[in-house]
Amino acid sequence: MERRLNMKLLACCFVIALVACAQSTPAPKPEGNSPQKAPEKVALDKPKLEAYLRYLELWVPDVNVKIDDPKPLSGMPGFSVVSVHLSYKAASVDETYYVSNDGKKVFKGDIYDLAKSPFQEEMDKLNTDRQPSFNGGPDTKVKLLVFGDFECPYCKAEAGTLRQQVPVSFPGKVQVFFMDFPLDSIHPWARPAAIAARCVLRQSRDSFWKFHDWIYDVQTDVTPDNFNSKLMEWAGKNSVDTVQLGRCIDTKATEDEVNHTVAMGRELGVDATPTLYLNGRKLVDNMAQWQTLQQLITLELDHQAKVAEEAEKCCVVDIPQVGKKK
Known about the structure:
alpha+beta; five-stranded mixed β-sheet; five-stranded antiparallel β-sheet; 10 strands
């Protein structure tokens, strides 16, 4: 009788232990796509941030401020990136700030990943697909993008420098792209010229560059009233189909292409012409001075050569062989 009781007690204790163990052991995670952790909510008070930034940056009341919703910042837990758009009359500028997810800290600056180019973010935004270029091709390691305006006198000076000097000093080593960025508020025929240039490009890349060089050469003689007549006169002398060109201009068939490069420039913070990007590095001042630009291009070519050399060393495996002398 006592033995049976002891056995019952032992069995009871065993069952209790199993139950306790089951309750204390976490349930196994389901296989496959487990639910992702919800992103941390950002406590961003936009009016408070705007007031703080206005005081910090000395933005006058006439400057309109628009603050985007915060976006998660990869590689920096606890912080989000916030884009701030400023506008005053016809001018606009975009700024980037980083805000802690509790909304109490804000800082401005650049974050770099040592494993990538310091200009990777800019390069990711610069799309050269279907953009006119000269002196290079898809395999060219150094890309020079020019955001230009056909009515801009500074662009005229810079264009002459690039067209004359780059092919001579760096033949086939630096691919130069032209990116439309007409300043509509101050240059009344810049947009019509950009639309026309794209229409010419649809017929021939070589014709585009003839137009590019010609329009800068006659820039001071062009007005909104005589642009079309001068263009058609030029087209007739340069084997451009004037009927096709006129139809393209009348329907503004290429204006979306112009708007695309303008939007690209604005996203990058372009607010003046000419603005150049050398493998993502923004260049704005004194770029018409060839000596300065030549030095920067040379440095970039040297840097790309070193990057290629390091990449080659990284991937070479030396396997020792019997009888092979080292």
